[in-house]
Amino acid sequence: MVTVKQMAAAYAEKHEMSPKDAAGLLTEVFDTVVQHVKDGDKVRIAGLGIIEVRSRAARMGRNPATGEAIQIAASRKIAFRAAKELKDAV
């Protein structure tokens, strides 16, 4: 697993800036992505993919322990669709 701190250190070294400035830049980028997703926008990041919110309708389900039918409420979920470049790289 790679952390933001590790990404910031690598970015800072590559672009000759302080790790603190690089971490601040990455944090701002991620905060902007989160805000757009919260607002319901699709966020397309070239070479990585698309992050969006999808609405799921209310539906019937079953309690696995008892088999009793239950109503599952409507909800919003985050979806990520990987770009072709990312799929090919993996």
List keywords for this structure.
90 residues, 3 helices, 42% helix, 5 strands, two-stranded antiparallel ribbon, HU Protein, Chain A, three-stranded antiparallel beta sheet
Written description of the protein model:
The protein is of the alpha+beta class and 90 residues long. It folds into two domains: 1-39; 43-90, HU Protein, Chain A, CATH 4.10.520. The protein contains three helices and five strands; from the N terminus they run ααβββββα. It has helices at residues 4-15, 19-38, 84-89, and strands at residues 43-45, 49-56, 59-62, 69-72, 75-82. A three-stranded antiparallel sheet has the order 1-2-5. Strands 3-4 form a two-stranded antiparallel ribbon. A hairpin with a 6-residue loop joins strand 3 (59-62) and strand 4. It is elongated, with a radius of gyration of 19 Å. 2% of the residues are buried.
Terminal CA distance reads 16 Å
* Individual helix count: 3
Q: Enumerate the spans where pLDDT stays under 50 for 5 or more consecutive residues.
A: none
Rg, rounded, reads: 19 Å
The outline comes out as elongated
Q: CATH topology of the largest domain, which one?
A: HU Protein, Chain A
Helical residues, percent:
40-55%
How do the helices and strands line up, and which of them pair or pack?
Layout: H1 4-15, H2 19-38, E1 43-45, E2 49-56, E3 59-62, E4 69-72, E5 75-82, H3 84-89
Antiparallel strand pairs: 1-2, 2-5, 3-4
